[in-house]
Amino acid sequence: MIAAQDLRKAFGPTLVLDGVSLALPRGRCLAVLGPNGAGKTTLLRLLATLQRPTSGTVTIDGVDAVREPDRVRPLLGVVAHGSYVYEDLTARENLRFWETLRGGDPSAARVAAALAQVELDAVADERVRTFSAGMKRRLGLARVLLAEARLLLLDEPFTGLDRRGQKWVNEFLLAFKAGGGTAVVATHSLGGSLAVADRIAILAQGRLVLDRPATDLSPEALHRLYESLTEGAEAAP
Questions:
Q1: Which of 145, 226, 237, 139 minimizes the C-alpha distance to 187?
Q2: I want to staple 155 with a disulfide (CB 3.0 to 4.6 A). Which of 14, 25, 81, 101 is the partner?
Q3: CA distances from 147 to 48, 75, 87, 142 (A)
Q4: Helix, strand, coil fractions of the chain, as percent rounded to 5
């Protein structure tokens, strides 16, 4: 589903990604770990065609994402670190608005089905400003379901969630994979990563310092490797 080769991204003299290569088959999940400033969000933005790499290639489902981003975008669902919801609209109104902007089908049946899938149907007509962080995260995932995305890109999906909310996100991702979906998750949550990921990657100072099957790593081994591989890595100023 994803093939990235020698990706580099520079902002002026600052090299944020330095020669990152990775591959992810369809129906699998990659967890990308790393400290602040490691390049995780930049990598997601390149995969989402929101930015162009300084050099290197990205292919998504056989399509050159750098040269033909418009062909790739219908496949993508992006859930950013912030909630990006309209607080004064209801959950139902948010989905109808998003789907209308996308040029999709905002029919009552489709919106209701998406809300039911993320277990928000009981609060569909409540204003989002009353929602918890976990409920807002679910609403963002409902948007992905409406768009029928096949590649899901999530930035820090576990931040601000209690244990129950984290468990729900993991269950959603497992179901998404079971349906043939592919996911890339950028996260600080080492424990949550092993719960759902098929591969674990670690970024440090813009370089890919580890890329292994998750089955090769126990929680203890992952913590040890993470500490040793990111030691001294600091956030970009």
A1: 226
A2: 81
A3: 14, 8, 21, 9
A4: 40, 25, 35
Tens digits of residue pLDDT in 93-152: 999 999 999 888 999 999 999 999 999 999 999 999 999 988 998 999 999 889 899 999
At position 13, the amino acid (one-letter code) is P
- Comparing CA positions, the residue from 16, 78, 12 lying closest to residue 44 is 78
Count of CA atoms in the C-beta half-sphere (13 A) of 138 = 26
Determine the Cα–Cα distance for residues 138 and 113; give it in Å rounded to an integer. Answer: 13
Q: Is the pLDDT of residue 47 over 90?
A: yes
Assigned token pair, 58: 């990205």
What angle is formed at CA 188 by the lines to CA 9 and CA 37, rounded to 5 degrees?
30
In the DSSP assignment, the letter for residue 189 is -
Q: What is the pTM of this model?
A: 0.89
Report how far residue 77's alpha carbon sits from residue 154's, in angstroms, rounded to the nearest whole number: 8
Give the CA count within 13 Å in the CB-facing half-sphere of 230.
24
Q: Which residue has the tokens 């109808």?
A: 96
Find the radius of gyration of the CA atoms of the chain: 18
* Separation in Å, CA 144 to CA 5, 82, 137, 213: 27, 15, 11, 26
The answer to whether residues 198 and 32 touch, using CB atoms and an 8 Å cutoff, is: no
- Amino acid (one-letter) located at 148: E
Tracing tokens 């995305």 back to the chain, one arrives at 149
